[in-house]
Specification:
The chain is of the alpha/beta class. It is about 40% helix and about 15% strand. It has 2 domains: about 15-55 and about 295-405, Aspartate Aminotransferase, domain 1 (Alpha-Beta Complex), CATH 3.90.1150.10; about 70-295, Aspartate Aminotransferase, domain 2. The longest helix is centred in the last third of the chain and has 22 residues, at about 295-315. About 45% of the residues are buried.
Length: about 400
């Protein structure tokens, strides 16, 4: 029996879809998987996923909730025990008296970005966002009819630094929002206190509302993280993006939260009703267990990631024409490969990336997977995620990269 031949109508796709971008790291993943299917061993540095198991008590609590019948709808802002546990946890870490009413649970960290923009930006208004940065910022701003205005980074003595002058010069009378990702993807950069203070002063001077993307707030190996919301005058103008994906190795569980002033939180909860009704019910009980009982498992994960970071930095810095910082947070490295690309005869990012993949099996993202390149950029960078690859494979894969680079 043969399948029926269907004649397609002439679909009229909405024009706004042309403004919608994507997370192109998944395209790199698909390419690597296709090569792996031919028998080539792949060393996956491309995707910020984790190969570390979710803490067992989180799994057990979620399954217990499902078995107890927590499989129907729940309140659109999330269950009260999780909202309260999050409010308590973030109040301790941020020094801000958050209450249950400030917390709206989300199906992952990413939904906070779009809902923040929908709640606070009118079409035609401008939003400042980091570039390079998480590509969904740019995508969501433009999809909802805003003007995405990038601000960049430069290499400093110890890590990347925000170009504060460019940021200040980019503010206009149409600027409404500022996206700020301290503990930054892809660079791993962390603001010095004076840099964060300068950003807070700009936000207050120009009456900007800030999205503080804190996905990696707890993925750090030394020192303590600080939120811009904790600075004087900032809690009332800051929306925090929280995700369970990184801290508790729950990337596939799709659970996060928005922490915001009550007036904004209420709007975000209303958007929940329209988008997904409510977050997944039973996995929220797993998250409660994670917040209350998983500190040892979190520390064990950080110890594993620290060892991977140290070895990856050592190997990358052994390559001629490569220099790489050693970030104290996130699980990303963003080495400068300008000299290496020139020496190997590459001017094009994608040609370089694909050649390395074919010749060594080492798969990574480039700067172009994190927003459009800025006109003044001359240096070349690639990003390595060490969260989803074992120490043995880091040594083997980067060992092959070192050999290829000679």
């Amino acid at each position: 029996m043969t399948a029926a031949t269907l004649t397609s109508p002439q679909y009229r796709i909405a024009q706004r879809i042309a403004r919608l971008g994507t997370e192109t790291a998944f395209a790199v993943s698909a390419e690597a998987n296709a090569l792996a299917a031919t028998g080539v061993k792949i060393y996956p540095f491309h995707l910020g996923d984790l190969d570390i198991k979710t803490p067992q008590n989180v799994i057990d609590a979620a399954f217990a909730a499902a078995n107890a019948g927590k499989t129907g709808y729940c309140p659109n802002a999330g269950i009260a025990p999780l909202r309260q546990a999050l409010a308590d946890d973030i109040s301790r870490s941020h020094g801000i008296p958050y209450q249950l009413e400030n917390v709206v649970v989300q199906p992952g960290g990413k939904p906070t970005i779009g809902k923040f923009i929908m709640a606070l930006m009118e079409p035609g208004e401008e939003v400042l966002y980091p570039n390079p940065g998480y590509p969904i910022y740019e995508s969501q701003i433009e999809f909802h009819g805003g003007r995405a205005v990038p601000y960049g980074f430069r290499e400093g003595p110890h890590n990347f630094e925000i170009d504060l002058q460019q940021l200040a010069d980019s503010i206009s009378e149409r600027t409404r929002l500022l996206v700020y990702n301290n503990l930054h993807n892809p660079t791993g950069a962390e603001s010095r206190p004076e840099e964060m203070q300068a950003i807070a002063e700009l936000a207050q001077r120009h009456d900007l509302i800030v999205l503080s993307d804190e996905a990696y707030f707890d993925i750090r190996y030394q020192g303590e993280s600080t939120s811009i919301a904790s600075l004087p005058g900032m809690a009332a103008r800051t929306v925090i993006l929280y995700t369970f994906s990184k801290k508790f190795a729950m990337t596939g569980w799709r659970l996060g939260a928005t922490i915001a002033p009550v007036e904004i939180a209420n709007v975000i909860a209303k958007l929940n009703v329209n988008d997904e009704s409510c977050p997944n019910h039973f996995i929220q009980y797993g998250a409660v267990a994670g917040l209350l009982e998983s500190q040892q498992e979190v520390q064990r994960m950080l110890d594993i990631l620290r060892t991977r970071r140290d070895r990856a930095v050592e190997l990358l810095n052994s390559v001629g024409g490569v220099r790489c910082y050693r970030p104290q947070a996130t699980f990303y490295l963003y080495p400068n490969v300008t000299e290496l690309m020139q020496r190997k005869g590459f001017n094009d990012y994608e040609a370089f990336r694909r050649q390395v993949l074919r010749d060594t099996g080492v798969s990574f993202c480039t700067r172009l997977h994190f927003g459009r390149a800025l006109p003044e950029e001359t240096e070349r960078y690639i990003r390595f995620a060490y969260s989803g690859i074992s120490l043995a494979d880091i040594e083997e894969g980067l060992g092959r990269f070192v050999q290829w680079s000679r």
